[in-house]
Design a protein that fits this description.
heterodimer; A: about 425 residues; mainly alpha; B: about 500 residues; 4 strands
Chain lengths: ~425, ~500
C-alpha cells in the first residue's frame, strides 16, 4: 500500500506541481477578491459586530461582543491570503487541504465582516447551527465509512434516513417516548441495511442499483404514508406530531463562554454523533473487528484465506451502517421539528457520502468535512437574514456544488478501499 | 434435401429468436407482475377498513347487560360515538334475529344489499337499542369481512388504474356506436382520452428512458435525467417565448434543439468530471439535480417569471413553437410522439450501427479492453453523457412545447427518476425502453385516476418501480419465486464499478 502510494507520488509529481500552482493562484485570487470587493466596498470608520453570546438561554456568562473596525480587518485578511498564495507558489505547503481550508475560512470571515458592517451578526448562533446541521451529514458519513471499509457501497443512506425519520416520529408520537422513537429509527435503518446486504452480498446485485432501489423505495413508501394517512389531520396529530429532544446543558462545560453554547448546549443527537465518532474511530483502527473490516475492504481474498468470514463481516457492517444512518434520520424529525414531511432529508445522505469521500474514509476526516457542509448550510441561512433580497437559491446550491468540487478531487485525491463495490465470490 | 435442410435451419432460427425474445421478456414481465401484486398488498393493508379490522379492538359491541370495557361500550357511549363520529366508510351492523346485517356507510348508495346512506345511518344511530346494534366486530370474529374489504380495496384501485389508463370499455363502445351512427365523434374522443393520455405520458418516458439506457450501455449511471429534463425544458421555454416572428418550421426545431443543448450541457458536466477526475457520476448527477431545481426556482422567480404573474411560472410559449396535436381538443396527443420514435430509431442506429455506438458499448462493457484497443475512455464518457443529457433535455422540451406551453416548478412528476427503473426494465435496449415506457406511461397516467377515484396515493407507483428495480437487478428472486431455471443466456448487468477514484 505504502509502496504503491510512493510510486504513485512519483508518477503524479508533474500533476502535483500543477496542482500546487493552481492552488497558489486560487489563494492569490481570494486575497485580491477580499481586498477588491470587500475592503474597497467598505468605508473607513465602519464597525462590524460579531455576537459572542447565544441567542438562547444558556449557562454561559455573558461576554462582550466582538466589535472591530471593518476596513482594516478586511485589509489584514486579504493580505494574509495574498501571503499564503505567494508562499504556496514559491515554496508549497505540505498539506494543501488544510491550507485551502484556512484560506476558505479567511474568505468567509471577510465576507461576514463585510456583510455585517454597521450591523451585528451572531457568530455563536451560526457556529452552533453549524454543529447541529452537520450532525445528520456526519452520521451519514460514518454510515458510509463503516460500510465502505468492508467494501459495500452504501448509496442508500438517503433512503435509510428518510425511512428512519418517518418511523421514529411515528413511534415517538404514538408512544410518547422520544427514546423509543429513536430506537425504532435505528432499527428501521438496520433493516434497510440488511436488505441492502442481502441484495449486494447474497444476490450480488450491483450495489449502486440496489442502493438506488432502496432510495426509491423509501421515497415511495414514505410519500405513500404521508398522502394516505397524514392527510387526515386527526391521524397526523396522533402519529406525526412528537416532542423534540430538549437541549442538554452539560454541567461545568456548558458554562464556558463561546465554546459552551456551541458544543455543550445542544440536544442529545450531536452528543450521540460524537459518541459514534469515538466508538467508530477506536473500533475501526484498534480492535480485531476493525482490522478485519479493513482487511475485507482492501483484499477480501487474503482475509478469507486467513480465516476471516468475509460475508459475515460485510453483513454486520452494512447492518451497522444502516443503523447509524437510521440515527441520522431520527435527527430530522424527533431531533429538530417533531414532524415528518415528504423528502425532508433533501439530499443530506448523499452529502454525507461526499463528506465520507472528502474525509478519505476515516471517521475524523468525515466529521471535518461534515462540519464544512454544516457550515455552508447554516451560513446560507444566516446570510439571508443579513442581506435581505440576496438570491438565496444560489446559496442553497452551495452545499451541492461544494460536494461536486470535493468529489472532483480538487482538495486532495481520495483513495477508496481497494475492493469497494465488488461483490465477493468464494471459489 | 438441401432445401429441406435450409428450411429446417430457418425454422430453428425463427423459433430461436422468439424463444429468446420470450426468455428476455419473461423476467421483466414477472418482475412487473410481482411488483403490482406487492403494490396490491400495500393498497390492501393501508385501506382504512382493513386497518380497522386488523387493529386489536376495532369495533365494539353494544351489549344489553354488563359491559366489558375492553371490548364493549355501553349504549350511551355508542350513541355519542355514532352521533359525532360516524363517518363515511364506517360499518354499521343491525341485529336481525340471531345474526347481524352489515351495512357500509356511504354517500350515495350503489348497492342496497351492503350499503346504507350516510344521512339515514346518522338518523338511525340515535335509535340504537341495547343488544340490537353492534358497531361491527373484531378480525377474529369476522376474518372474511376483512379479506373482503382488502379484496375490494385492491380491486377498486386497479380498476381505477385500468379505467384511468386504458379507458372504460363500455364508454368506448358507446362512443364508437354514436360515431358510426350519427357521425358524432366527440363522445368517442372523450372515451379514448385515457389511452391517448397514457401515450402522452409515455413520450417523456421514452426520451428519459433512452437517456438512462444509453448511459447504462456506456457503463454510466445517469441519475441526473431529472435535472437535465429541467434545464432542457427551461432553455426550450426561453427560446419558445423570446424568439418572435419566426415561422413554425424554424421556431419549433430551434426550441427542440435548445432543449437538447440544455440537457446535454447539464449531462456533460458530470461526464467531464468523471472522465477527468474520476468523480463518480452517480453522486455528481444527483448533485446536479439539486442545483438544477434551485436554478429553475430562481429563474422562475427572477429572469423568467411571467410579467404580472404572482406565481413562479414562465411566460407562455409562442404558438409557432408548439408541437402540433393530432386530434381535436379533448385529446392532447401531440407530435412529440413522432420525435420520440425518431429518437428511438436514432439511438438504436447509433448504438448498433455506428463506430461511436460500438465504442460506447465497448467502454461500457470493459473500459480496460477499450483503452487497450486505442479508444479514449474519457472522450466516450463525455460523449455518452452528452447524448444522454440531450435525450433527457428533449423530454423536458417535449413537455413544454407539446403539453404545458409554459414552465412551472414540478412540471415533471419524476420522469427522470422513474426512467432508471424503466431503462433497467427495458434491458437498456431502445426497443425494450419503448415497451417499458408504454407500461410506465400507462401506470403513471392511470395512477392519477387511482388517486382521485380510489384514494390510493400516486406514490404507490414509485414503490412498485423500486420493487421492479430490485427484481430486475436480482433475477434470482424471481426465479426462486416462480421456480424457474437459470437459462445461462442472460448476461449480468454490470453497471458501475466502485467509486472509480
Amino acid at each position: 500500500m505504502s509502496v504503491a502510494a510512493a510510486s504513485q507520488k512519483l508518477i503524479l509529481s508533474t500533476s502535483e506541481k500543477r496542482r500546487r500552482t493552481i492552488f497558489g493562484v486560487i489563494f492569490l485570487l481570494v486575497g485580491i477578491l477580499i481586498i477588491w470587493f470587500f475592503a474597497f466596498e467598505s468605508k473607513p470608520g465602519q464597525l462590524t459586530t460579531f455576537g459572542m453570546n447565544p441567542g438562547f438561554a444558556s449557562n454561559a456568562p455573558t461576554i462582550p461582543d466582538l466589535i472591530f473596525p471593518t476596513q482594516p480587518v478586511l485589509y489584514a485578511l486579504g493580505l494574509i491570503a495574498l501571503f499564503m498564495g505567494g508562499w504556496q507558489l514559491a515554496r508549497g505547503y505540505k498539506s494543501i487541504g488544510a491550507m485551502f481550508g484556512i484560506v476558505f475560512g479567511l474568505f468567509v470571515l471577510a465576507f461576514l465582516a463585510w456583510a455585517a458592517r454597521d450591523k451585528s451578526f451572531n457568530m455563536v448562533g451560526m457556529l452552533q447551527a453549524t454543529l447541529v446541521r452537520a450532525t445528520p451529514i456526519a452520521l451519514g458519513a460514518f454510515s458510509g465509512v463503516i460500510a465502505e471499509r468492508a467494501a459495500v457501497i452504501n448509496i442508500a443512506i438517503e433512503g435509510m434516513m428518510l425511512a428512519a425519520a418517518l418511523v421514529s416520529v411515528v413511534v415517538a408520537s404514538a408512544t410518547g417516548s422520544l427514546w423509543l422513537g429513536m430506537v425504532a429509527g435505528i432499527i428501521t435503518g438496520g433493516v434497510l441495511g440488511l436488505l441492502h446486504g442481502v441484495m449486494a452480498i447474497q444476490f450480488k446485485v450491483d450495489q449502486i442499483i440496489s442502493g438506488t432501489a432502496i432510495n426509491i423505495l423509501a421515497t415511495g413508501i414514505t410519500g405513500f404514508v404521508v398522502k394516505r394517512f397524514f392527510i387526515d389531520p386527526n391521524i397526523n396529530d396522533k402519529f406525526n406530531h412528537s416532542q423534540i429532544f430538549p437541549p442538554i446543558q452539560i454541567p461545568v462545560l456548558s458554562a464556558i463562554p463561546v465554546i459552551g453554547p456551541i458544543l455543550f448546549s445542544v440536544n442529545v443527537l450531536p452528543y450521540l454523533m460524537f459518541i459514534v465518532l469515538i466508538a467508530l474511530h477506536i473500533t475501526l483502527f484498534y480492535t480485531r473487528w476493525g482490522l478485519r473490516t479493513i482487511a475485507v475492504g482492501e483484499h477480501p481474498k487474503a482475509a478469507d484465506t486467513l480465516g476471516v468470514n468475509v460475508f459475515k463481516i460485510r453483513y454486520i457492517n452494512i447492518t451497522l451502517s444502516g443503523m447509524i444512518a437510521g440515527l441520522g434520520g431520527a435527527y430530522f424529525t424527533i431531533g429538530r421539528v417533531g414532524q415528518f414531511d415528504e423528502a425532508m432529508t433533501a439530499g443530506r445522505g448523499f452529502i454525507g457520502l461526499a463528506a465520507m469521500i472528502f474525509g478519505k474514509w476515516t471517521p475524523i476526516g468525515s466529521l471535518g468535512a461534515s462540519l464544512l457542509f454544516g457550515f455552508a448550510d447554516s451560513f446560507q441561512q444566516k446570510i439571508q437574514i443579513l442581506i435581505p433580497g440576496f438570491p438565496s437559491e444560489f446559496l442553497l446550491m452551495a452545499p451541492y456544488i461544494i460536494t461536486m468540487i470535493v468529489l472532483a478531487g480538487v482538495v486532495g485525491r481520495a483513495i477508496a478501499p481497494a475492493a469497494d463495490g465488488i461483490p465477493y465470490e468464494k471459489d | 434435401m438441401a432445401d429441406e435442410k435450409k428450411k429446417a435451419t430457418k425454422e430453428r432460427n425463427g423459433n430461436g429468436f422468439w424463444r429468446r425474445a420470450g426468455r428476455t421478456m419473461l423476467i421483466p414481465l414477472l418482475a412487473v407482475v410481482v411488483g403490482l401484486l406487492l403494490g396490491g398488498v400495500m393498497v390492501a393493508i393501508s385501506d382504512p377498513v382493513v386497518l380497522r379490522g386488523l387493529s386489536p379492538n376495532p369495533w365494539l359491541v353494544v351489549p344489553s347487560g354488563e359491559v366489558d370495557p375492553s371490548s364493549q361500550i355501553d349504549l350511551q357511549t355508542a350513541l355519542k360515538f355514532h352521533k359525532n363520529e360516524l363517518q363515511i366508510g364506517d360499518y354499521l351492523a343491525f341485529k336481525r334475529g340471531n345474526s347481524y346485517i352489515y351495512r357500509e356507510v356511504v354517500k350515495e348508495i350503489t348497492d342496497r344489499e351492503t350499503q346504507i346512506d350516510f344521512e339515514r345511518a346518522k338518523n338511525r344511530a340515535p335509535n340504537l337499542e341495547a343488544g340490537n346494534v353492534a358497531i361491527v366486530l373484531t378480525f377474529s370474529d369476522r376474518p372474511f369481512f376483512v379479506f373482503e374489504a382488502a379484496g375490494r380495496a385492491v380491486w377498486q384501485a386497479y380498476r381505477a388504474l385500468f379505467i384511468g389508463s386504458i379507458g372504460d370499455p363500455q364508454r368506448i363502445a358507446e362512443g364508437w356506436r354514436a360515431a358510426v351512427q350519427d357521425g358524432n365523434w366527440l363522445a368517442f374522443r372523450e372515451a379514448m382520452r385515457p389511452i391517448t393520455e397514457s401515450l402522452v405520458t409515455s413520450i417523456p418516458y421514452i426520451f428519459a428512458g433512452l437517456a438512462v439506457a444509453l448511459g447504462f450501455q456506456a457503463g454510466l449511471f445517469n441519475i441526473g435525467a431529472e435535472g437535465q429534463i429541467a434545464i432542457g425544458a427551461a432553455l426550450s421555454t426561453y427560446l419558445g417565448y423570446s424568439l418572435t416572428g419566426l415561422p413554425a418550421v424554424l421556431h419549433l426545431p430551434i426550441a427542440l434543439i435548445g432543449g437538447m443543448v440544455g440537457g446535454a450541457f447539464w449531462g456533460i458536466i458530470p461526464g467531464y468530471l468523471k472522465a477527468k477526475t474520476g468523480a463518480h457520476e452517480v453522486i455528481n448527477t444527483i448533485m446536479m439535480n439539486y442545483v438544477a431545481f434551485r436554478l429553475m426556482s430562481w429563474l422562475l422567480r427572477g429572469p423568467m417569471q411571467r410579467p404580472g404573474a404572482g406565481k413562479p411560472v414562465s411566460p407562455f410559449v409562442l404558438e409557432s413553437a408548439y408541437l402540433p396535436t393530432f386530434f381535436g381538443p379533448p385529446l392532447r396527443l401531440h407530435a412529440g410522439l413522432i420525435v420520440a420514435i425518431l429518437a428511438v430509431i436514432f439511438v438504436w442506429w447509433l448504438l448498433y450501427k455506428t463506430t461511436i455506438g460500438f465504442e460506447l458499448r465497448t467502454v461500457g462493457a470493459n473500459p480496460n479492453a477499450a483503452k487497450y484497443s486505442g479508444m479514449s475512455v474519457a472522450r466516450n464518457i463525455v460523449i455518452a453523457m452528452g447524448i444522454s443529457g440531450a435525450l433527457a433535455g428533449l423530454a423536458g422540451a417535449n413537455e413544454v412545447l407539446g403539453l404545458n406551453h409554459f414552465l412551472a416548478e414540478g412540471f415533471s412528476p419524476g420522469y427522470g427518476f422513474d426512467s432508471i427503473a424503466l431503462a433497467l426494465l427495458g434491458k437498456s435496449h431502445p426497443l425494450g425502453v419503448v415497451l417499458a415506457a408504454l407500461l410506465f406511461g400507462t401506470l403513471r397516467s392511470g395512477a392519477t385516476s387511482m388517486q382521485s377515484l380510489a384514494q390510493v396515493p400516486i406514490d404507490i407507483i414509485t414503490t412498485i418501480q423500486a420493487l421492479v428495480i430490485v427484481f430486475i437487478a436480482a433475477p434470482e428472486i424471481i426465479r426462486w419465486l416462480f421456480r424457474l431455471k437459470a437459462t445461462g443466456e442472460e448476461e449480468k448487468t454490470v453497471i458501475t464499478r466502485g467509486w472509480g477514484s
